[in-house]
Design goal:
Layout lengths: L1 E6 L8 H13 L4 E4 L15 H11 L4 E4 L2 E2 L5 H15 L5 E4 L4 H4 L7 H19 L4 E4 L4 E5 L8 E7 L13 E7 L5 E2 L3 H13 L7 E6 L8 H10 L3 E5 L5 H9 L6
Parallel strand pairs: 1-2, 1-12, 2-3, 4-5, 5-8, 8-9, 9-11, 11-12
Antiparallel strand pairs: 6-7, 9-10
Helix pairs in contact: 1-2, 1-8, 2-3, 3-5, 6-7
Length: 271
């Protein structure tokens, strides 16, 4: 089991220097990863909003060993070629520590800017865009003419970037963006529509769905503790490991940066 810090990019966490310093502290305390939300507009959250790619570049320069990445990039609102270029650049800058999380994102990041947030279209864009991202990162010539994206006569340098997908459970449709994905970041809600941790039993089913949809059989599965009561702990980690979980994130969205820093300083669970 590896342990990561998972932080929003707005409000008290909208200060790039705060985000950078938390990442430096996480590396010093022995955490394995540091991952950021990716939003444009605050929506229901408080401004300011920090651009994760700019901040992650600063973090890559200020750290040496901790893995990092956006978790998740709303791929349907991005140009795949630009995202592949950014990913390749950050992977080089970080010395190979980037994990690229992909998803569909929140509706207001589309509608606030005059774009459609129709879920079926976003899901289809994620599937096609993820396929194109894999092709662009492969280093092979790319000829792609799809429903939403086109790339002809394009060839980027080969870049080894683990690409994860994300989605909500339970599902009625296949896992989107999962084909050839190196990992999965599943999310679940409780009866009050708040985020919750999946059970080990649920994780087994989620992992099976991910593999059926084309994800790597040995891919990473990352869970996150969306509230203070469900902080990562060594005892349940063993059960989650047996269910196939490889990463467990400590969420910062319900903590102040100062409180998160204290939790970071304690280090990841031992044992």
């Amino acid at each position: 089991m590896r342990y990561g810090i998972y932080v929003p990019s707005f409000g008290a966490y909208g200060d790039p220097a705060v985000l950078r310093d938390l990442a430096v502290a996480a590396e010093s305390a022995g955490w394995h990863g540091y991952f950021m939300w990716d939003l444009i507009s605050p929506g229901q959250y408080d401004p300011p909003v920090a651009d994760p790619w700019v901040v992650l570049a600063a973090i890559a320069q200020a750290t040496r060993t901790i893995q990092l990445g956006p978790m998740v990039v709303p791929l349907p609102r991005r140009r795949p070629a630009k995202l592949a270029l950014e990913a390749g650049t950050l992977q080089s800058l970080s010395g190979g520590r980037l994990i690229l999380g992909l998803g569909t994102g929140v509706g207001w990041d589309y509608t606030n800017h005059g774009e459609s947030a129709k879920r079926s279209e976003l899901a289809a864009r994620l599937d096609e865009g993820a396929t194109l991202i894999h092709a662009l990162l492969s280093g092979e010539p790319v000829e792609h003419i799809g429903t939403y994206y086109k790339a002809t006569g394009v060839r980027f340098p080969p870049t080894d970037v683990p690409v994860w997908t994300s989605g909500f459970w339970p599902r009625k449709a296949p896992v989107r963006g999962a084909r050839n994905a190196n990992g999965l970041f599943p999310q679940m809600r409780d009866k009050t529509d708040d985020f919750r941790l999946p059970t080990p039993s649920e994780v087994r089913g989620i992992r099976a769905e991910f593999i059926r949809a084309g994800g790597h059989a040995d891919g990473d599965i990352a869970i996150w503790s969306p509230n203070n009561a469900a902080a990562p702990a060594a005892a349940p980690a063993k059960e989650y490991e047996q269910a196939g979980v490889t990463w467990w994130f400590q969420d910062g969205s319900e903590l102040s940066p100062d409180d998160l820093l204290k939790r970071i300083a304690n280090g990841p669970p031992a044992g």
